[in-house]
# Entry
Amino acid sequence: MQESLTKFVFLNHQIKGEIIQVNKVFEEFTVHKNYPQPVKKILGELFIATNLMAATLKFKGKITTQIQGNGPLNLAVINTTNNFINKGTARYDTKLIKKDMSFKQLLGDAQLIVSIEPDQGEKYQGVIALDKDSLSDCIKQYFLQSEQIDTDLIIRVDANINNLAGILLQKLPSNSDSDITTDLNSFEHVLTLANTIKNDEIFELSPNDILYRLFNQEKVKVFESEAISFNCGCSQDKSDTVVRSLGLEEANKILSEQGKISIICEYCGKEYYFDKDKIEQLFISH
# Structure
């Protein structure tokens, strides 16, 4: 499986699309976090959806999707740049999580907040209710409601949440009023073909092979794939700076009370810890 997002456009229809496939990147995303399976699955789906949404941006910037609810999973956040550099996290009540919870049971009454921040220009924020049976159905509603664009999403996550993939299809503006019916029929035709994709195909085939498998009777132009990556931004140096900012007296006070100072990255879950020897070295060196 490639760790990439690939854009494509139909030359014989007013439709564009994207394919994303992820494996090791999401493993990096969650390796230090002991997420329950239902939480990890939702976070994986949000990861796929957010990157597909980022690919629709026409400018440099970032997009943040945030699920807020009153269910056992009360917060899930993914932040992605236009270059598909990702970070994210989730908050949940472990005691309330059950293995076979549905999308709605896990989130309760929830909403999706989409924040788009161009490097230059004004920030945009959209909010939709997560009142459908799946995240993909809710994202479709977001595009229809906020951008008036017919959009379809296919999001697939395997049983072990090791392989994640997705396809986004969007109808482009019609050239004239007389083309609207034709374009709608074409869009439905392409959606029907796309939904025949099987899990083993979307996880194992290359983007080009997926497009041939689905649309070999259509005229499709495929663009160069772009890499998906994870970068939470944490580091030993940044953790050292945080501890130094406490001052030696406060650092020693925490050591006497807790035995060590521990800094945990909110996004990747990696722990940076400081015992007495490390604290002494940290302040002696500065």
Residues 4-230 form a domain with the Hsp33 domain fold (CATH 3.55.30.10). The chain is about 35% helix and 30% strand. The two ends are 46 Å apart (CA to CA). The chain has a mean pLDDT of 91.
